[in-house]
Amino acid sequence: MFRVNRQTDYAVRVVLALAKKPKGTRVSTSEIGREMLIPRAMLQRIVATLASGGFIETQAGRDGGIALAHDPNQITLLQITEHFEGTLILSDCILKEGDCPFEHKCPVSCQWKRLRDLLRDEMARVTFEQLVEEGKQIEAELLQHASSKSVPVPVVRNLPVADNVPL
Amino acid sequence: MFRVNRQTDYAVRVVLALAKKPKGTRVSTSEIGREMLIPRAMLQRIVATLASGGFIETQAGRDGGIALAHDPNQITLLQITEHFEGTLILSDCILKEGDCPFEHKCPVSCQWKRLRDLLRDEMARVTFEQLVEEGKQIEAELLQHASSKSVPVPVVRNLPVADNVPL
DNA sequence: GAAATCCTTACAATGTCAGTAAACATTGAC
DNA sequence: GTCAATGTTTACTGACATTGTAAGGATTTC
Q1: Per the count of CB atoms within 10 A, which of A67, B26, B82, B146 is most buried?
Q2: Angle CA(B7)–CA(B8)–CA(B11) in degrees, nearest 5?
Q3: Domain that holds residue B83
Q4: Tell me: the pLDDT tens digits for B116-158?
Q5: Is the pTM of the predicted complex or chain greater than 0.90?
Q6: Is residue B159 part of a domain?
């Protein structure tokens, strides 16, 4: 297949939930679990992993909880993803030097590498500040169209959508 | 993780091997297996899958073998990949309508969708004709530098490499 | 009919992932 | 100091996908 683990999805949701709140707001894990519909035990590991990556600050004990360690505009989708998935790789053949019997002679590995760099670059541009903003826009659109009959479709602004894929 | 199956990698190699040869050349599976270092039993399945996708034409019997069904410039990396992996998906949350409890309210799914479209678009631009050309360029560079001391590093021409990824 | 080839199916070994559970450590309120 | 609420860590299980092996069947040429 070709997709991020569910754990990573969950982690993104957690960071987004924190990014939505005023800076420094501390929230208990269980509260986030309720809000974001994440199984408790999974969430425990995710929180620990986020903390080990320095993305959140944790506070044990009564009234404890977690809070973002940085501004949402300093945290990118790439950072969270790679912290949970490891460095992005589209094909094993560029994983290790010498792992592929064709080494540098292979044009395919060059392309996989180029595509990976492209994807990484793009993911590095997506900050959680941006995601929060887009979330607000989407909610505004939903409210605006609430009484209309048409189904509201969210639009990501200022971002060209590539749909000119042949075949 | 985040990578294509080995089977897909193998399949790409098979198509590339065929694309390198003069149009219509028929090659036996076992020969490709030797050339591309693919386990025999795996290769059988891969060839069958390629045939079912209409990418190759097969001929049973003595002097049989496989040949490309189309020009290399009509076959893209995306086609082969999606035929073996299914439609590209970066995150499950955009897999099915109604599968994600947040539906369209979620800015994250919008981004995953945008990134996926970007990647698909880029992969659709990579044809096997291009891969063959790049392979020739790489070999030429290798020959040119064969007597020099520097380790030859292949360069993909006219393709910007995104390495300005922060952090 | 025999040999070479592609096609299909079943199966086992391995690894990954999602989720559960339980014990532990830390903190603040009383 | 004790207790309760919270985060931390580890072990385990079941489900599933992936890789690879093996065997038999179908097709074509000689």
Answers
A1: B82
A2: 90
A3: 6-144
A4: 999 999 999 999 999 999 999 988 888 887 655 554 444 443 3
A5: no
A6: no
